[in-house]
Amino acid sequence: SLNSKRYPGYKKMVRRFQSDGIKAVPMLPLKFPGHGYVRPDLRNHRKLVVVDGQTGYTGSQNLIRRDYHRKDTIYYDELVVRLRGPIALQLAAVFLTDWFSETGEFLNNQLAGKTASAIRSHGSSLLQILPSGPGYDDENNLKLFTNLLHLAQKKVVIVNPYFVPDDALTTAITSATKRGVEVVMINSEVMDQWMVGHAQRSYYEVLLKAGVKIYLYDAPILLHSKFITIDDDIATVGSSNLDIRSFQLDLEVTLISYDAKVVRSLERVEQKYLAKSKRVQLSQWQKRPNSQKLLDNIARLTASLQ
What is the pTM (predicted TM-score) of this model? Predict the structure, then answer.
């Protein structure tokens, strides 16, 4: 809620919702000790929509203008999946939990009438919704990603705008390449968050030496899509960045698909992204100016605070 207030038209939008009878409540509003204290570094980063308990949408896209009202030339490319059938109720359960946490209101009865039709199959894909965040005992999104990387046998493609991994994720990626798995990562050439951008670049040399193929999506577009494909049959799509903040502080939601057809669909997206990207070569990367290397390393030291 604190971050949303800085965007133009936010207060006007909330007033319009209220006048039209739309319930709108802030997520994790800033509260001080003695008044229901909420840590200011926590963030609900989930992006989801559920319609009638039957159709769901989730992925990387925020409900905001494509350029985020920025003053520069950067704008964003996103990826969202549309879901039908029982999986929509799993997504609804995440929303119901968030709503109850902020309001104390239990909305389940409003979905009860839709449940019978929602549980009818709308396809053959085996899907699962994984919520994560500081309210869970484990960093379950991090454990999911590292486990899938350790299970990979042929190919992994990682598409994510913010890559600041911990040791476990770094080891999982480099271990995969050393046992013969092809690992491809697509980041963006442009940086919209200066410190995070430099921090993630500090990992490139280690990854390139391990055999990871790194591609940078052409500026001025920042590739905000967040998905991973593992071999021919597993994929994840969601809101989670591959950084310490998303693993430890942010509330995230991830769709897991165990379906080769979904992977093939995402592979077509990957090919479109690669056509708009340049590959990073180790020899050229090592020749970048020392000032850039210094900035990358300094940013990496503060990665846990970003």
Answer: 0.94
